[in-house]
Amino acid sequence: MPTNSDLGRAIRRLRRDQKRTIEALALDADMHPTYLSGIERGRRNPTWDKITSLARTLDVSLAILVQAAEDEAEVACAVRDARARIAVGNTR
Prior knowledge:
Layout: H1 4-17, H2 22-28, H3 33-40, H4 48-58, H5 62-90
């Protein structure tokens, strides 16, 4: 299940893929750049209105945004698993 951090990384990746700044995306999505930065860092719990506004502004469907967040969650899980295996290997 994706977390706020996974959603934030997905939004950041989509924004960067479009070569947009935080300031430009925030302005177009009608939010403050600091608030968007907090979303991207997983520090904010965005409302449904904010999420739909970001999807619309990024010109992606909510389904694509959710899939991107799920993909980020899978990557984060794989990284955690790899780190855990390395840590176990270092204790032997």
